[in-house]
Design a protein that fits this description.
The chain is α+β, with helices and mostly antiparallel strands. Helices cover 36% and strands 20% of the residues. The chain contains 6 helices and 10 strands, in the order H-H-E-E-E-E-E-E-H-H-H-E-E-E-E-H. Strands 1-6-2-3-4-5 form a 6-stranded antiparallel sheet, with no helix packed on it. Strands 7-8-9-10 form a 4-stranded antiparallel sheet, covered by helices on one side. Helix 5 (171-181) crosses helix 6 (218-249). It is elongated and about 80 Å long. Mean pLDDT is 76; it is low at 1-33 and 36-40.
């Protein structure tokens, strides 16, 4: 019994530490704080706005301020300390890093002027906290309508580009289509080329294969254009073949 009592009172004994909560000094920004995703797995929202040194799994080091942390993509956006252009100190590099590629993070602290600006921004926005309240540059509202409009415009442009490409057609057919598209409204209808919504140019895409559903006055004109374009393409191919033969012969 006396031995157990002495063990409980011993300052270096483990038995006493198991029954008492471990006391740690409060963390300050000036101290270095390490984070390892492999051992912790916790959210990184607490590093937003802090200066950190990130070491990747490839042992690359990135030093800068954490701009934001995205929980959807699990990425950190870091504003690097080094400016890419000494003549333009306001120009900054942003690095996007997946958290799965982070080996550890050392918090270097936050400059006093950065804290003052961040507090002013938070007060002006009427926000009490959150990972985006004190980021710099300040994140403004996103106009969702404008984003949707740009997305729809890009989708229409991609659709128009895709519509200009024939499916299962020869290189000569596509070349003829591209040449006619410079001056005439045309589109693909399966493997045929529809010109002016009146004249169809069927394979093998000669003047004899041009036809119209009705008596279209454009039919004769399109035949002349197709003949001229076919002759021009044939001349280009022959000149290219002759040039290649001369190169091989030399």
């Amino acid at each position: 019994m006396s031995t157990d009592k002495q063990r409980n009172q011993s300052p270096g004994g483990n038995y006493q530490n198991q029954h008492r909560p471990h006391q740690q000094p409060p963390h300050t920004l000036s101290e270095s704080r390490q984070y390892s995703p492999l051992s912790g797995g916790q959210s990184l929202a607490w590093v937003v706005g802090l200066r950190v040194k990130v070491t990747t799994t490839l042992d690359d080091e990135i030093t800068g301020s954490v701009y934001t942390y995205c929980t959807l993509s699990n990425t950190l956006a870091i504003t690097e300390d080094e400016t890419p252009n000494a003549q333009k100190p306001d120009l900054k590099n942003f690095r996007i890093v997946k958290t799965s590629f982070i080996k550890d993070i050392a918090v270097l602290g936050r400059k006093e002027e950065d804290k003052e600006v961040a507090d002013q921004l938070a007060q002006s926005n009427g926000k009490s906290g959150g990972p985006f309240a004190k980021v710099q540059p300040l994140i403004g509202p996103v106009q969702i309508g404008g984003v949707v409009q740009k997305m729809n415009s890009a989708a229409r442009a991609a659709g128009q580009t895709l519509a200009q490409k024939g499916v299962g057609v020869t290189r000569e057919a596509q070349d003829l289509f591209d040449s006619l598209a410079k001056t005439l409204p045309i589109r693909w209808v399966n493997k045929s080329i529809l010109v002016l919504d009146e004249v169809l140019i069927d394979p093998p895409y000669t003047s004899e294969s041009c036809r119209a559903e009705t008596q279209s006055p454009a039919l004769a004109r399109i035949k002349i254009v197709v003949d001229g374009e076919r002759k021009r393409q044939d001349a280009i191919r022959k000149a290219k073949a002759a040039s290649e033969n001369e190169r091989k012969g030399g």
